[in-house]
Design goal:
By secondary structure, the chain is mainly alpha-helical. The protein is 76% helix and 0% strand.
């Protein structure tokens, strides 16, 4: 569970509610008509703009923003260096037995191609193609929330126009001006809050998740190719360290042949 994402939403919502209640009742900011125009309208627009197969994955995409298994790039590099030591010491075919140490399908696939004798160019092309499809899937999921962040303020403005039209049509009825103006302003409020506090931040969080996963897979591609090419484990380590910030590079510890690496 990503505590930062959940905590930010909960604390932010609580602070806004408290700020509203300090100046008046919370019911002043609740309006079913405004909700229907802004929220339902935005989701309907996204339904129009998004392929059906992506909408079916909406809950999975939301879950990915809140629940994410953090993986250490340092541990991954250490594991790849250890695989390089095994390949250097016992031959690349010995890596088949070492695959039980990982449940990363992308890494397993790359090592299996190396064990099968695929040349580095073929391995790079295959894994890069898989990575490009991963990027496209992530981009499509992120696009849903970017669209929501775009549509919500627009529908809020549409609600404002609806409220103003209703108000102008009944200017002779002074008692109707307040409620109509309320609908006009609350829809804009809903649109702005939803876009900038929920939809766009979730899109940014999904993008952050994507960049983290992309880095790990780039490390895997470089590591597998280096191992298949028969590089010395020290060379494998040096090639993979460049993916890390300088302050983290000293944390990579190359294991000596015969010692156990991180599992």
């Amino acid at each position: 569970m990503d505590i930062a994402t959940l905590g930010g939403l909960v604390i932010g919502t609580a602070v806004m509610i408290m700020a509203i209640m300090l100046r008046g009742p919370i019911t002043m900011f609740t309006d079913l008509t405004s909700f229907m125009i802004t929220v339902v309208g935005s989701f309907c627009a996204v339904l129009v703009a998004t392929p059906p197969h992506m909408m079916r994955k909406l809950m999975q995409i939301i879950r990915h923003a809140f629940i994410f298994e953090t993986r250490s790039s340092i541990e991954l590099i250490n594991r790849l260096v250890r695989f390089g030591e095994i390949a250097r010491r016992d031959g690349i075919l010995a890596l088949e037995n070492a695959l039980d140490e990982t449940d990363d399908e992308f890494l397993v696939h790359g090592i299996e191609m190396a064990v099968d004798g695929s040349d580095p160019e073929h391995i790079h092309k295959t894994m890069a193609t898989e990575l490009s499809y991963l990027e496209e899937r992530h981009r499509s999921g992120r696009k849903i929330f970017e669209n929501l962040g775009t549509f919500a303020p627009a529908f809020g403005m549409a609600g404002t126009l609806i409220g103003l039209i209703l108000m102008l049509r009944e200017l002779q009825d002074v008692s109707a001006i307040g409620p109509r103006m309320g609908v006009a302003l609350i829809t804009t409020f809903y649109g702005v809050i939803l876009a900038n506090f929920v939809f766009l931040p979730i899109a940014e969080k999904l993008d952050s998740r994507h960049r983290e996963e992309l880095l790990l897979k780039e490390i895997i591609i470089q590591g597998v190719i280096s191992i298949q090419s028969g590089d010395n484990p020290k060379v494998v380590e040096q090639k993979l360290k460049i993916f890390l910030p300088p302050v983290m590079r000293e944390s990579v510890t190359r294991r000596q042949p015969g010692t156990k690496g991180p599992r």
